[in-house]
């Protein structure tokens, strides 16, 4: 059940529908090598108890900065290390628990050691090529097939100790739910309600220190990106994204109606608001993007898809 591979296929971590905290297909893919364990059932020796299933993967990849970032050829590439481990307990059907870890370091073969999340490979504050940017997330996904419902959540944490004086210091999260709805059994039509809320604002204590974003770190000047695009949440970091949609599936394709509210720059507003006074409507400083949309996929033939 052990696997190994090399390629450029995009990684999607966790059950999030739109904005995973740590990794999605938002940024261009990158070359990587990986080692893994396929979904494997675990049984207690001698007594034969079924404890559930485990699955895991570890990888190292080659990131590239945007062509527009700078003209310094010596810092064009960073190294990304990833680790994802999941457990589905047999005594709680439908539940999957996952732990993810991502580490960005300068591209240097000596930094391959950061692939293993040992204590000496985390929280290293150095700008000479030895510094790192570690991010973690815990995920819970619970599916109830009998009623067609799924609820999920991912909590992310960036560097530091969550047991310090301010536990929410670098905490972000995505939560969501999906509910299937039978529309017409005769015509094989089914619907799905989708809701997802992502919050990546900086904590209150950071406002009194310096500007912060979950997607930035002073050791990795390009931020949490590949070719200038966020590796994780497509909504970026520093605001809130609320998505609600209804998706219809039918034999020739699907269509989606959605509404979304996205505040992109809340962190900027907060850090500018400290020790200042405002007049009038204080909410005017927030930038909110509201989107209403219709997406359709229609199969003209078995192998030809029309999307709009």
- How many helices? 1
Task: State the end-to-end CA separation.
Answer: 40 Å
Specify Rg, calculated over alpha carbons: 22 Å
Strand content is over 45%
Structural class by helix and strand composition = mainly beta
Characterize the main sheet. Answer: 13 strands, antiparallel
Low-confidence stretches: none
How would you describe the overall organization of this protein?
- The protein has about 300 residues and is mostly beta strands.
- The protein is built from one helix and 15 strands.
- The chain has one helix at about 265-275; strands spanning about 1-5, 30-45, 50-65, 75-90, 95-105, 130-145, 150-160, 170-185, 190-200, 225, 230, 240-250, 255-265, 290-300, 305.
- A 13-stranded antiparallel β-sheet has the order 1-2-3-4-5-6-7-8-9-12-13-14-15, with no helix packed on it. A two-stranded antiparallel ribbon has the order 10-11.
- Strand 6 (about 130-145) and strand 7 form a beta hairpin.
- The longest helix is centred in the last third of the chain and has 8 residues, at about 265-275.
- It is globular and about 65 Å long.
- The model has no long low-confidence stretch (mean pLDDT about 90).
Please give a quick description of this structure.
With 308 residues, this protein is mainly beta. The chain contains 1 helix and 15 strands, in the order βββββββββββββαββ.
């Amino acid at each position: 059940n052990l696997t190994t591979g090399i390629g450029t296929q995009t990684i999607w971590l966790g059950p999030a529908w739109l904005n995973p905290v740590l990794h999605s297909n938002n940024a261009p893919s990158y070359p990587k090598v990986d080692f893994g364990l396929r979904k494997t059932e675990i049984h207690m020796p001698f007594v034969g108890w079924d404890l559930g299933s485990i699955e895991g993967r570890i990888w190292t990849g080659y990131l590239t900065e945007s062509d527009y970032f700078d003209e310094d050829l010596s810092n064009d590439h960073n190294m990304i290390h990833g680790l994802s481990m999941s457990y589905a307990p047999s005594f709680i059907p439908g539940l999957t628990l996952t732990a993810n870890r991502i580490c960005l370091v300068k591209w240097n073969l000596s930094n391959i050691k950061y692939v293993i999340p040992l204590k000496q490979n985390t929280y290293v504050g150095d700008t000479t090529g030895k510094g790192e940017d570690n991010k973690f997330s815990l995920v819970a996904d619970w599916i109830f097939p009998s009623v067609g419902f799924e609820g999920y959540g991912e909590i992310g944490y960036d560097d530091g100790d969550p047991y310090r004086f301010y536990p929410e210091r670098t905490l972000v999260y995505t939560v969501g739910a999906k509910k299937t709805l039978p529309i017409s059994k005769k015509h094989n039509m089914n619907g799905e309600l989708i809701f997802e809320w992502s919050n990546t604002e900086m904590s209150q204590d950071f406002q009194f220190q310096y500007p912060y974003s979950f997607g930035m770190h002073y050791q990795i000047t390009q931020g949490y990106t590949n070719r200038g695009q966020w590796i994780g949440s497509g909504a970026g970091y520093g605001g809130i994204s609320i998505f609600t949609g209804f998706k219809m599936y039918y034999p020739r394709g699907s269509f989606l109606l959605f509404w979304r509210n996205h505040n992109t720059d809340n962190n900027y507003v907060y850090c500018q608001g400290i020790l200042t006074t405002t007049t009038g409507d204080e909410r005017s400083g927030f930038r909110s993007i509201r989107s209403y949309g219709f997406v359709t996929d229609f199969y003209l033939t078995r192998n030809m898809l029309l999307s709009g």
